[in-house]
Amino acid sequence: MLVTNEFESLSNHSEVFEASIRILDFLNGIMFVRDPARKPLQPGAIHERREDGRWSAGTILGKATAFENRDRFFAPTVVLQAPGSAPPPPAPRPPHMVWMTEAIRDDTLADVLTFLRGEPDWFNLYKAFELMRDDINRSLGQDKAEQMGWPAKSTLDEFCESAQVHRHSRVKWGRFDLSTAMKIDKARALVQSLARTWLDWRYRP
């Protein structure tokens, strides 16, 4: 079940649904980065808490009736503390929690995660790539991008040229045509790796 304070001010199921879609886009983008074999989340039903504290049966939104996810985002932690000892420092937040929090207030991150939601096609993969590349170049400069782990231009040329072939349906673009250009599975794996590198650099502890 997805519960958030953002829903508190909303007055009807339609408003909650629209707000939940944006949050699910972020979650699905995060899941793409974390686990390429994940199953994207889908909205199932909207439940309302009644005045007596109980939850309603729910308004069904589609075929899915639950959020499905094979990735376990949270794991319990037990901390033992000796009597009289200073309390331990707070545990650092897991990266995915940082990304989710930042996506709500950071348009660049929000757009990247939204482009990577679900099963991104060539258009969405390239748009996410462009946003990440431009963000790095603004901060470090193109000549210093490799210092944070970003691949050299020569390594990315196959992806970029292949994206032009697939996005614009050109018979040939540079070295590649539709039969020789990079396949979508390889492109998704590459952008997934790039996104993790970018996120680790942008939100390093």
Report on this structure.
- The chain is mainly α and 205 residues long.
- It is built from 6 helices and 4 strands, in the order H-E-E-H-H-H-H-E-E-H.
- It has helices at residues 13-34, 95-105, 107-115, 122-140, 153-168, 184-202, and strands spanning 45-46, 59-60, 172-173, 176-177.
- The strands form 2 sheets. A two-stranded antiparallel ribbon has the order 1-2.
- The chain is globular, with a radius of gyration of 21 Å.
- Residues 59-80 have low confidence and may be disordered.
Low-confidence stretches: 59-80
What's the helical proportion of residues?
A: 40-55%
Radius of gyration: 21 Å
Estimated structural class? mainly alpha
Mean pLDDT comes to 76
What composes the largest sheet?
2 strands, antiparallel
| Strands side by side in the biggest sheet | 1-2
How many structural domains in the coordinates? 2
Distance between the termini: 29 Å
Order of helices and strands: HEEHHHHEEH
The backbone outline, from C-alpha atoms, is globular
Strand content: under 5%
The tally of strands reads 4
Number of helices: 6
Features:
about 5% strand, 2 domains, two-stranded antiparallel ribbon, mainly alpha
